[in-house]
Amino acid sequence: MSPSTSDIGAADPAPRHARLPRPLRPFRTGQYRLLATALGLGLAGSGMWTVAVVWQVIAKAEVRPNSP
User: How many whole angstroms separate alpha carbon 11 and alpha carbon 20?
Assistant: First the structure.
């Protein structure tokens, strides 16, 4: 049976959460968003620590004169 013209487009649009792309669907839950935020902040903190250590090594190497 073919749908009548009154049936076309009569369905409600998809709910908001159904329109998310599949890789982003876990972000619907609060616990997953909290986990992702914590992991992102931890990664950023580790990167800052690495930059700070390298910066300190360079700063100490510039201050120290060449001694025999």
Answer: 19
